[in-house]
Specification:
One of its GO terms (molecular function) is zinc ion binding. This is C2H2-type domain-containing protein. One of its GO terms (biological process) is regulation of transcription by RNA polymerase II. This protein is an alpha+beta fold and about 375 residues long. Among the domains are: about 70 residues, Double Stranded RNA Binding Domain, CATH 3.30.160; about 80 residues, Classic Zinc Finger (Double Stranded RNA Binding Domain, 2-Layer Sandwich). It has 14 helices and 24 strands. It has a two-stranded antiparallel ribbon with strand order 1-2. Strands 3-4 form a two-stranded antiparallel sheet. It has a two-stranded antiparallel ribbon with strand order 5-6.
Length: about 375
């Protein structure tokens, strides 16, 4: 019988010790629980209420669990580590870390995880569904927690605060990571090399250097990379998007760090000074590269030939000689090349642009080295 659709009124006596006295359902515990659900639907009355806040429930165990949010009690302790939890289910999930057990399996791919909600979230990758939508902008995501974090961008709320400095964040994990800057602690260690870091995600990314795993692929070209952020930056090459704009001049860039470095030109600030010569740079990496000139150090070595370079990008460029790879293509003709600067120079043939101008005569060139060579004519003429 469907109680919801029935016209029979539900009569209830005041609550006492037993189910028998509580209502006219004189049957087992399961039927009695059904009765309690029906009572709430008809009367809106919750049987169990928190005496500290407005929380109420029709199940006694829910109140018990809720009270731990007020008391901070964590009665469920792990017997393998220091972990403790307010809920038995959370401890059960935690224990999977020690046992390596992942009971929830995807029936589409090989993915498996420790929680039911983790599997549910994963399934959205197959369906493409993003059920949680922001009511202010177009943002949508696969979990309520992600949406809650996103909403703080609109509200400006940063509820997680550092108790040592003014730092505050929208995400709890960021505070945990930030605290390592005060303590100097780097708890996540690589078991292959001496690398250690402040977050599991950083370690995960680092491990891909050892495994050569590149899970993120560009759907426009053959580019693969180790991080989602690197893929995002790469895609901007195809879209020509430059979201990081200077508020003083027309400069804009695909990378935030490039804009930061550019802004130092406006402030005339070059904080990184060489202790051997007068050189000073806008970034620490610039100074590091410059120091190689004094030390003659070339730390980036080719694993195929004897070549070694002062920068990682120089080695990357060199490697194209071995692979015969030419990743930069002209979109006007069939020209391909190994470097972005070479492509830039080539494009000037199509546009007719000659940015390198002589300040003595009308000469101008597409290449800086040509202008340098040309200037020697004027210097030679003055000497004569």
């Amino acid at each position: 019988m469907d109680i919801k659709d029935s016209d029979v009124p539900v009569q209830c006596k005041p609550f006492r010790q037993s189910a028998k006295e509580h209502c006219n359902f004189n049957t087992n515990k399961i039927q009695h629980q059904v009765y309690k659900n029906v009572k709430v639907q008809y009367t809106g009355e919750y049987l169990f209420k928190c005496n500290i806040c407005d929380y109420c429930s029709m199940i006694k165990s829910n109140i018990k669990r809720h009270m731990r949010t007020h008391t901070g009690e964590k009665p469920f302790k792990c017997n393998a580590c220091d972990y403790s939890s307010k809920h038995k289910e959370a401890l059960k999930t935690h224990m999977c870390k020690h046992t390596g057990k992942k009971p929830f399996k995807c029936n589409t791919c090989d993915y498996c995880c420790t929680t039911k909600c983790g599997l549910k979230r994963h399934m959205y990758m197959h369906t493409g569904e993003k059920p949680f939508k922001c009511n202010i902008c177009n943002y949508c995501c696969i979990s309520m927690s992600h949406l809650q974090t996103h909403m703080r961008k609109h509200t400006g709320e940063k509820p997680f605060k550092c108790n040592l400095c003014d730092y505050c964040s929208t995400i709890k994990a960021n505070i945990k990571r930030h605290m390592c800057t005060h303590t100097g602690e780097k708890p996540f260690k690589c078991n292959i090399c001496s690398y250690c870091c402040i977050s599991m995600s950083h370690l995960k990314t680092h491990m891909r250097k050892h495994t050569d795993e590149k899970p993120f692929k560009c759907n426009t070209c053959d580019y693969w990379c180790t991080t989602k952020s690197a893929l995002k930056m790469h895609i901007r090459k195809h879209t020509d998007e430059k979201p990081f704009k200077c508020n003083i001049c027309d400069y804009c860039s695909t990378i935030k760090s490039n804009l930061k470095r550019h802004m130092l030109q406006h402030t005339v600030e070059n904080p990184f000074k060489c202790n051997i010569c007068d050189y000073c740079g806008t970034t620490k990496s610039d100074l590091k590269m410059h120091m190689h000139k004094h030390t003659d150090e070339k730390p980036f070595k080719c694993n195929i030939c004897d070549y070694c370079g002062t920068t990682k990008s120089a080695l990357k460029m060199h490697m194209h000689k071995h692979t015969d790879k030419k990743p930069f293509k002209c979109n006007t003709c069939d020209y391909w090349c190994t470097t972005k600067s070479a492509l830039k120079m080539h494009i000037r043939k199509h546009t007719g642009e000659k940015p390198f101008k002589c300040n003595i005569c009308d000469y101008c060139s597409t290449i800086k080295s040509n202008l340098k060579r040309h200037m020697r004519k004027h210097i030679g003429a003055k000497t004569i």
